[in-house]
């Protein structure tokens, strides 16, 4: 009888482990998305600075999003997994700097990070990627992809000037080794401006890879790089 109970317990553990794997590996790659704060704020919707003050004039992380090669993506994979602030306490200062929230009302950023974890992070959750590992992976990817420096080195600066979209993509590819996806938005004057940059990472979230598919986002051939 004991042997039967032990066997059933082992089977239950295996099923639980496989269910975690199914959630975590049911995607093909990550989109690592960074946004330019000047473009976020320079719209008719405006923005609110975090309670820690105005962020640095640098690209900030928007998210690390599991994606599939067919263009689909999983989301909200575990509604019971809420972000635990204690799990990321040692990352808070780095998150406030590199992953700031610009939405209104002003906040500490935790609400933004919680949203990203619940919508996207839960779909990458596994034995290897827990809450701490997810946010740490995104921070490390940002260290590897210094977009502002890459653009400045190519003479592309956040000075309200207009730049060739192809030149922006080429500058980022030159610096990172990979072709980016670019998303634009429009300001109150309907000027097309660089808003978000998409790079792709492997399912461990540790290395950049060439994007199997790039997001289809409309941009003009010349886009503005607004000040912040």
UniProtKB/TrEMBL annotation:
SUPFAM superfamilies: Ribonuclease Rh-like. GO terms for cellular component: extracellular region. Pfam families: Ribonuclease_T2. The active site is at residues 62, 116, 120. Keywords: Disulfide bond, Endonuclease, Hydrolase, Lyase, Nuclease, Signal. One of its GO terms (biological process) is RNA catabolic process. GO terms for molecular function: hydrolase activity; ribonuclease T2 activity; RNA binding. The keyword Lyase applies. Coiled coil: none annotated. Gene3D superfamilies: Ribonuclease T2-like. Residues 1-24 form the signal peptide. Transmembrane segments: none annotated. It comes from the Eukaryota. The keyword Protein biosynthesis does not apply. Belongs to the RNase T2 family. May remobilize phosphate, particularly when cells senesce or when phosphate becomes limiting. This is RIBONUCLEASE T2.
């Amino acid at each position: 009888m004991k042997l039967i109970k032990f066997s059933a317990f082992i089977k239950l553990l295996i099923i639980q482990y496989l269910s975690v794997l199914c959630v975590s590996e049911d995607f093909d790659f990550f989109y690592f998305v960074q946004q330019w704060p000047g473009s976020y704020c320079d719209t008719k919707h405006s923005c609110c600075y975090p309670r820690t003050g105005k962020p640095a004039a640098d690209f900030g992380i928007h998210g690390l999003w599991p994606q599939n090669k067919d263009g689909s993506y999983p989301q909200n994979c575990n509604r019971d997994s809420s972000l635990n602030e204690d799990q990321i306490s040692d990352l808070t200062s780095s998150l406030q700097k590199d992953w700031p929230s610009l939405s209104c009302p002003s906040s500490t950023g935790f609400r933004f990070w919680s949203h990203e974890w619940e919508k996207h992070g839960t779909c990458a959750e596994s034995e290897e990627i827990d809450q701490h590992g997810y946010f740490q992976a995104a921070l490390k990817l940002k260290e590897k992809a210094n977009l502002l420096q890459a653009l400045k080195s190519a003479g592309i600066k956040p000075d309200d000037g207009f730049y060739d979209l192809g030149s922006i993509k080429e500058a980022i590819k030159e610096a990172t080794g990979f072709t980016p996806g670019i998303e634009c938005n429009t300001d109150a004057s309907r000027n097309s401006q660089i808003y978000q940059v998409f790079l792709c990472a492997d399912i461990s979230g540790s290395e950049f890879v060439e994007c199997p598919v790039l997001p289809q986002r409309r941009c003009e051939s010349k886009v503005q790089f607004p000040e912040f």
